[in-house]
Design goal:
The chain is of the alpha/beta class. The chain is built from 16 helices and 13 strands. It folds into 2 domains: about 120 residues, no CATH class; about 230 residues, Rossmann fold. This is Alpha/beta hydrolase.
Length: about 400
Amino acid sequence: MRAVELCIVAGGAGIHRRPCFSAIMPKFRQRGRRAADAVARRGVKIGEIVVGPFAVRSATSQLRPQPMSRSCLSVLFSLVACGGAVASPIADQVAFSHPQQMVDIGGRRLHLYCNGTGSPTVVFDAPSADAGWSWHAVQPAIARRTRACVYDRAGLGYSDPSPLPGTSGNAVADLHKLLQTAGIAPPYVLVGTSYGGGNVQLYTYRYPEQVRGLVLVEPEHEDEMARLDRASQGRWSQLTAAQAAIWPQCVAAAEKGFVPGSEAFLQCTGGIQPVYGRELAAARLAVETSPGYWHAAASEQAHFDVSRAELGAARRSYGDLPLVVLTRGVSPFAVPGKPQSELNKATERENMAMHKEVAALSSRGSQRVVPGAGHIIQQDRPEAVVRAITDVLDELRP
């Protein structure tokens, strides 16, 4: 089958070194060109979209086709893909390989990991179906300047599951309760990517007195599905419908028990990812083969429309809040070595337009394109995220 532009795939779990798990979640790592090519041959073509467990990656001409990432699963719904990830020092990763602080927020616990001292506290939220370890290449650098906290949403990472649906509104309520209970007092600078970018925007609207700055990394927009579907001439809705069946397959496989090395194991988890050190890779895989993880991830995916509606209902000006919006510099839809189609260019323009609109909601807002980065910029170009956060912190100096 010919891989063409707007290639999206479904796969497993993980954010690093994998193109996007486009229809379902955000995270699969590289399993090698042979596996990617094999899955590409089994893909299903819908219009100009190849639907399958993996997508042909187009970050740069040097990059090979890669298995798709679950971070991209959320990406699927934000019409983006992942670029090539940069591994952080192993020493920085070890702290993410086990629970740090489990905070009881009322009958269930959320995982919190804070490092560093100072104010304001920088709080990070991860992409859909991902956990605090998404920020392993960024949080340690920020912690050298001020207190920096990552957390895991309910049912993801090391956090306990929630009986409530996986919506942005429920995530914001959980985060608010978590910070209160843990004694992490405001002010905050909030940092979120993709779905997490929508969550931190909603938090800012609900608790404006607590937030002093925002860094939005390829953030979710309340109208992105309709606008990107128009830009892609309906291809996006075809894709989401075709891939809706993949989630329950991974949930069912997790409930039955993944067999290491099996097709279901590789498609749904991505297997061991070399971008991680041994300890973090093992911890991630243990979490992302559990039924609880897949139920929580599937709940977020199933309630994307609700989450976007919550953000849309809250939408208003940010006033003079320091705000930086980071946009990918690498189109996930271009086939390496071939000119980008007008359809793909239109999709990229629409993504850029939405980010510019969000940045314009603050008189101190700015939008930056990050060269060489795909959708999960903190994996591809962590230094760009560190710089954006640092710039916001500098603006807040007395």
